[in-house]
Amino acid sequence: xxxxxxxxxxxxxxxEWTVTLDNAAHVLCHCQACKLLSGGEATLNQIVPxxxxxxxxxxxxxxxxxxxxxxxQDVHCFYCPNCTSHAYHHQTVMGPDRYVVRTxxxxxxxxxxxxxxxxxxxxxxxMPELAHTFxxxxx
Length: 139
Hints:
The protein has one helix at 32-38; strands at 4-9, 16-21, 26-29, 43-49, 53-57, 63-68, 74-79, 86-91, 98-102, 114-118. It is mainly beta. The strands form two sheets. A seven-stranded mixed sheet has the order 6-7-8-9-4-3-10. Strands 1-2-5 form a three-stranded antiparallel sheet, with no helix packed on it.
């Protein structure tokens, strides 16, 4: 896979990873699950092939939380068991080889712009549209 390789880490440093992205950018997700899991208005993400993500520290101790997504299928959230920062999610509706990586935890992410927004239907009314918006999420 070619693209931009970035390094990510959780808040406490117990979990680290590298990921290859198509580009250095964010996709904002405004779904209710992301809001509840993050405590914010949106999460910063990018969908990547599973082969593009490598957990370099803490792989054997990652926590896992599973919930049912809007599709009715499982969403597996993988996080640091110490500080609970979410490194990535696997939305099974997208198949076995695609992950949603939390781009806000990657080195240099503060310089990246949003390129799309998903679940625009759930965006807070006070938040402006920042990029092309899809009313629902990936399927």
